Amino acid sequence: RKTDRIVKACSYPSTFVADPEGLKITSIPTTPVEGQKTGTSGLRKKVKVFKEGNYLANWIQALFNSLPPEDYKNGVLVLGGDGRYFNREAAQIIMKIAAGNGVRKILVGRDGLMSTPAVSAVIRKQKANGGFIMSASHNPGGPEYDWGIKFNYSSGQPAPESITDKIYGNTLSVSEIKLADIPDIDLSCLGITMYGSFTVEVVDPVSDYLELMENVFDFQLIKNLVSRPDFRFIFDAMHAVTGAYANPIFVDTLGASPDCISNGIPLEDFGHGHPDPNLTYAKDLVEKMFAENAPDLGAASDGDGDRNMILGRGFFITPSDSVAIIAANAQAAIPYFQNGPKGLARSMPTSGALDLVADKLKLPFFEVPTGWKFFGNLMDAGKLSICGEESFGTGSDHVREKDGIWAVLAWLSIIAYRNKDKKIGEKLISVEDVTREHWATYGRNFFSRYDYEECKSQGANQMMEHLRDLISKTKPGQRYGNYTLQFADDFSYTDPVDGSVASKQGLRFVFTDGSRIIFRLSGTGSAGATIRIYIEQFEPDVSKHDMDAQIALKPLIESALSISKLKEFTGREKPTVRQ
Ligand code: G6P
Ligand code: ZN
Predict the structure, then answer these.
(1) ipTM above 0.90, yes or no
(2) Distance, CA 371 to ligand 1 centroid (Å)?
């Protein structure tokens, strides 16, 4: 490969026995710190909080105290992160505590870098017992901003609630930290260092992941597209972790021009950016894709590389449409799905565009609560191949996390496949053409999300209670403007694999024409309450597919605001973000 990522010279031999004598383990007394409740995306706090005293060390020790010994003693763990501030320091702490607790080997990404989907891929490929991801996803990074840590299990999937609950329990009683007495490990060059029975291997964060991508996709097909003089692709890594992947994958392997990548160097503060690929935060990319002579396909990924946004020339694809279009074209364009996807799934608020594809392809279909974790069981049971969420997450069962680069390669594959016989100079089938064709075949699901961030919790909760109360009194057939109610409920999900039930997952008003209004409180906000309203309307009539979504959805939006009494409960006139 052309980049320096594999060949960088190390100051010591690639296998270095630093401490043949054995490992010295020190027990450090500690006292519990409050507020270490672990959500399903791990623990996320300000850097300052993590840096205080034993905050991070306590949580890591509580994690080892929570795992059955066979899940880590003498085992292998993967360690990686999104490159944000404090990762380097944190990596050293995590490795020393892992060694202190009897872990045999840590596979750590060079410079502590590894995207979330790549950690999932490496855990699976290397048959590791699990892995740590140092990331606060799309939250800003730097001394004043956020840090976070997640633990994934041997399937490559985020630890289940049964484990995260135990970790929290143990943070309340942790009294000693088992720390291996080893020096800081140089993460800047590849190689193996052994300290007695404990080994650290600094690995290239890209190779295993790239190998997986080469097995999933037809790289030659994509290469033929990307190297065409009449096709231009751009990728914005937002100074986050996919910067480490973009060059080796898009440039070195697929032959894209090096200048197709912007913000390609991972920085500890993401270049003062907010590494979230959406129309608000990926502003540079949006400007380029809506300018005159815009490229043909533009994409971005978030801090830890699991989210994605796809744009055509002057054209935005909603994540709900994106997963539906990928699913509809997967069998033809992506070798991994050559026998057809096993099943499709989306989160409840994600538009019903994917349902229509499942229907047409006669595939099993699942509607799960918000959160990637709900897809994992279905994948492990062989029931699910392709899934997505409206929150810019798309992926498949090749790993157990959503995967930004995978989504970009999926779109490149679709465009490449549709244009494979086109001569240079012949008009290419564009991202917009593919999308419009999809709408013409399946109908268009107009979709929008209104976010009211940092509302007072009390008002937001009262609004949800008011809606629950309303739902208990509604009857099918009631009229809301021009819409007739089919049903209204509080979404609840029974996992078809293990029978577990997740209730209170969002309030739905579903109308007879398939239109929906959904209310949910965000589970990821860090201050106050964030109310999300999801609005969707199905439109089979091709002549209306050109309409602006906000215009098409106006009557439903008005209904949503009036039935929820949002203004009365929150004092808000306008959403803070609208997608
Ligand atoms: C994280 C999860 C996603 C989920 C999203 C929902 O990004 O990884 O799976 O869709 O949170 O966030 P919200 O703020 O709507 O609860
Ligand atoms: Zn993320």
Answers:
(1) yes
(2) 5
Atom of ligand 1 nearest to the CA of 524: 14
Is 392 near ligand 1, meaning CB less than 6 Å away? no
**How many CB atoms sit inside 10 A of residue 283's CB?**
13
CATH class of the domain at 15-203: alpha beta
Enter the pTM of the model.
0.94
Write the residue with the smallest CA distance to atom 3 of ligand 1.
Answer: 371
What pLDDT shows up at residue 161? 82
Atom of ligand 1 nearest to the CA of 525: 14
Q: Which amino acid is at 326?
A: I
Cβ–ligand 1 contact at 371 (below 6 Å): yes
pLDDT tens across 171-204, in order? 999 999 999 999 999 999 899 999 988 999 999 9
| Distance between Cα 149 and ligand 2 center (Å) | 12
Q: What is the pLDDT of residues 236-292, one digit of tens each?
A: 999 999 999 999 999 999 999 999 999 999 999 999 989 999 998 999 999 999 999
- Closest listed residue to residue 261, CA positions, set 291, 226, 290: 226
Query: Model confidence over 8-27: pLDDT tens digits?
Result: 445 555 566 665 567 889 99
- 579/281 Cα distance (integer angstroms): 11
The CATH number of the structural domain formed by 444-578 is 3.30.310.50
Is 444-578 in the same CATH topology as 15-203?
no
Q: Is the dihedral of CA 271, 277, 278, 284 positive or negative?
A: positive
Q: Would you list the DSSP string of 16-81?
A: EEEETT---EEEEE----S----BTTBEEEEHHHHHSTTHHHHHHHHHHHHS-GGGTTT-EEEEEE
- Ligand 1 in contact with 40 (CB < 6 A)? no
CATH fold of 209-442 reads: Alpha-D-Glucose-1,6-Bisphosphate; Chain A, domain 3 (3.40.120)
Active-site pick, 41, 66, 120, 137: 137
Q: How far is CA 196 from CA 20, 81, 106, in A?
A: 5, 26, 14
Whether 524 is in the pocket of ligand 1, judged by its Cβ within 6 Å, is yes
Distance (angstroms) between ligand 1 centre and the Cα of 395 equals 14
DSSP string covering 79-103:
EEE---TTHHHHHHHHHHHHHHTT-
For the chain, domain boundaries: 15-203, 209-442, 444-578
Ligand 1 centroid vs 225 CA: distance in angstroms?
33
